[in-house]
Design brief:
Helix content: 40-55%
Largest sheet: 5 strands, antiparallel
Number of strands: 5
Distance between the termini: 38 Å
Shape: globular
Number of helices: 9
Structural class: alpha+beta
Order of helices and strands: HHEHHHHHEHEHEE
Radius of gyration: 19 Å
Length: 225
Amino acid sequence: MLSTKTKAFKYISMDFFEVLEKRRTIRDFSDKEVTDEILEKVLSAAFKAPANDHLRQFEFVVVRSKERIAKLISPLAGNIEGFTRENVDALADVMDKDEYAMFVDAMPKQQKMLAQSGCLVLPFFFHKGCPLLQPVCLSSLNYFASVWAAIENILLAATAEGVACALHIPIEQEAEHVKSLVGAPLGYEFPCFIAMGYPAENAHICKQKEIDPKDRIHKNTWRSE
């Protein structure tokens, strides 16, 4: 018979894999508010992620005001206007069909989803050493890798609480714009916008790419012996 401890571990493991299955990017949000209690619980998951320096130097700015959100995301309009219908249609021939379906849904909603969520989370991480965009080796990106492990924890914790998330990676001048508006201290970098909220009743859910892990796991060499 399994010990009580073993039974508990198996139950937790099954719960975790259920969360993995349910996690999806949602870009259509309802008006239901994410409470401060739920938000704190979800963001606390970031500090359980592995970090290269063990210090977990992550900070979060939470913005709920529609007016403030509009100011933070104002550069997006100009940055995405180049993605015209013609440009998007042209990608159909060079993208995988599932990738293309996701792209077609995502691009027009980049600005709307951040404003519509009503809860915009801005993560920051302390970065030292080489400039973030000028690494000299892979280990120069350890701080960047750590914050993304923390963000993944946030996405999973949000899913466990029934909260949906959508990410926007800053392009062009967006990151500097955000850092300036919120007064981020020197040495802190901004990796992404996290729109957080409850899914709209008719929220679109993109088909997740189906991958058989056996096709991606190699033994001893890249091509299994």
